[in-house]
From TrEMBL:
Top-level taxonomy: Eukaryota, Viridiplantae, Streptophyta, Embryophyta, Bryophyta
Keyword Methyltransferase: yes
Keywords: Methyltransferase, Transferase
Protein source organism: Sphagnum troendelagicum
The protein's name in its UniProt record: Leucine carboxyl methyltransferase
């Protein structure tokens, strides 16, 4: 129970990303934001929510638009037909990808968060002309619990295409021992279903935001009872996953620079972006046996 409470703090501390996405062209961002705002209007969470976003707007929006769009690009390249998104939160990716009826998409998060997501999606579908999403599933659980992971991947079948496991923003909140457990849990479905694991959670600092802003962000999370544990460097992260039996491919955020929308709205130069946030990376990992 203690672990569940700790991760719930993390899950709700990240909801301000819903606001950040409204400054991008990421599909369904505005719709999710409006429904969430209705749910929290007039309570302290709304005040904290808006205040946190405004104080970190430039950093939050640019970095996470890069991250989101690169993940989508990598998913397309790897033929995403079956997708398991861990710690999916209120991200709209599941809604976006299941526009294709041939895609099976499973969102996985802690019980309270996944139920909130389910309710938001149901409300959005019931109040719009959007088609139903029978291929979008919501599963509650803990990424470190084997039974929960088995339930999540039970929606996929051998022969229907490779499975893509994706997570954004989860690994930095796990200890290195927990990361090892998570890595091995992933190898079971990846070996069986011949897919890959995509994550941008390599935790490089952002030169545009500066060390002071990054430190302030860590202090804010700690004030909410959330503790982080990052890799010391990209080389350390790569070695870590290779020792777990993965082949690691590195891909740079700058690959999606032409697709960025928030950059022009937030007045950042191309050089700053490409040499700062754009120099950060995501890992695409496959089991060495596949």
């Amino acid at each position: 129970m203690a672990r569940s409470n700790e991760m719930d703090k993390l899950s709700f501390a990240g909801d301000w990303l819903v606001v950040a996405r409204t400054l991008t062209d990421i599909p369904y961002s505005q719709e999710i934001y409006e429904i969430l705002l209705e749910r929290i209007k007039g309570i302290q969470m709304e005040i904290d929510f808006q205040k946190e976003f405004q104080s970190n707007k430039a950093f939050i929006t640019r970095r996470f638009e890069y991250r989101y769009k690169l993940s989508n690009k990598l998913m397309k390249e790897n033929g995403a037909i079956k997708v398991l998104e861990l710690a999916s939160g209120l991200a709209p990716r599941g809604l976006q990808w299941t526009e294709n009826p041939n895609v099976t998409y499973v969102e996985f998060d802690l019980p309270r968060k996944i139920e909130e997501k389910r309710q938001i999606v149901e409300k959005l579908l019931s109040h719009s002309k959007m088609k139903p999403r029978p291929n979008l599933y919501f599963e509650a659980g803990d990424v470190l619990n084997r039974e929960d992971m088995i339930t999540a991947v039970s929606h996929f079948h051998i022969g229907d295409g490779p499975i893509i496991i994706i997570n954004e923003g989860l690994l930095r909140y796990l200890t290195h021992d927990q990361k090892k457990i998570k890595g091995w849990k992933h190898q079971v479905p990846l070996e069986r279903l011949a897919g890959c694991w995509i994550t941008p959670d390599i935790n490089q600092s952002d030169p545009i935001s500066g060390l002071e802003r990054m430190k302030a962000r860590e202090d804010y999370l700690q004030s909410k009872g959330v503790h982080t544990q990052s890799f010391e460097s990209v080389a350390v992260a790569k070695s870590f996953f290779e020792e777990l039996g993965f082949f690691v491919e590195q891909r740079f955020f700058k690959e999606v620079f032409p697709e960025m929308v928030s950059t022009s709205r937030l007045n950042a130069s191309q050089d700053e972006l490409e040499n700062g946030i754009g120099s950060q990376i995501s890992f695409v990992m496959r089991c060495n046996s596949t």
